[in-house]
Amino acid sequence: MAWSWSDPPSGIYPSALTSESYARAVPGAHDLIVYGQLWPQACDVSAVELLNALRQGATSSPHRPFVFLNMISTLDGRAAVDGGTRGLGGRADIEMLLELRTVADAVLIGAGTVGAEGYGRLLRRPERRERRQHQGLAPDPVAVLVSHALDLPWGAALFAAAEQPILIYTEASEPVPQVAARLELVRMSRLSLPEVMRDLLSRGVHMLLCEGGPRLNRSLLEAGLIDELFLTLSPLITADAREPAIVAGPALPAPPRGSLAWILKHGDELFLRYGIGRPRAGC
Ligand SMILES: NC(=O)c1ccc[n+]([C@@H]2O[C@H](COP(=O)([O-])OP(=O)(O)OC[C@H]3O[C@@H](n4cnc5c(N)ncnc54)[C@H](OP(=O)(O)O)[C@@H]3O)[C@@H](O)[C@H]2O)c1
Q1: Which of 146, 197, 236 is the best mutation target for the ligand 1 pocket, counting ligand atoms within 8 Å of the beta carbon and taking the most?
Q2: What is the pLDDT of residues 170-185, one digit of tens each?
Q3: 30, 123, 176, 188: least buried by Cβ within 10 Å?
């Protein structure tokens, strides 16, 4: 049953974080990152506790997985610095990203982003993969790429990660180069994101994390395929007009609205979670 953003079920927000509750959630973990939750209630929380609840609260439709987008932006709205995200986020942003990957069945990444970021195995820490297995998930979330022409950056570290399963949807008929990663290709007569979603669901992908980039985000938003946005606000201001915003391309014909679900803080970074396209009741 879907729940409304103005009325989340009780229990979806964790109680106050204690070292005991963290040790229970993450056996063997030492580097506790504590986020201060500012809204809807003030308490200290870990990403593990917060995101365990995400799988419980999320519902996939009959046609597609539940899709949650994670992005970081500077204070002046830029999604990259010097062509990539490395200079943007701190430890707490990386922890949030890795925990989002830990709860996802698969991770959708735009072709441009693979080239810019390089990647590698999506979950390198055995502890995170073990936690997934305890919950009945495959140890590694599948990396899902979409590319019309299959002109992918084959030298990227993602393709060199032998343990990483990768699923590529394409219209192209060309052969792909030999890479170390476990590749599977799905050739379509026309690459369509709703079709990709349907196929992912048929493969058991119920929770799909999207990591951008901005052009792919726009297509997903236009097609109404994003349920949630996790947005980190980096305290940087760059004024670099060459860099895109978190969504790039022509204006969206029907701009979706976000409904705020939480605000967290770590250092000078803010972590916002929005439901997308589900208008809040009231003013
Ligand atoms: N701030 C953040 O959180 C964040 C996150 C991710 C990326 N980034 C930054 O964003 C930049 C890369 O983003 P980008 O916008 O250039 O590329 P992108 O969105 O990652 O990838 C776009 C490519 O995806 C393929 N694609 C397939 N189907 C598509 C569809 N329906 N709609 C759109 N694209 C589709 C196309 O390649 P084909 O021609 O092969 O089909 C297209 O060129 C980098 O600078 C990266 O660092 C920032």
Answers
A1: 146
A2: 999 999 999 999 999 9
A3: 30
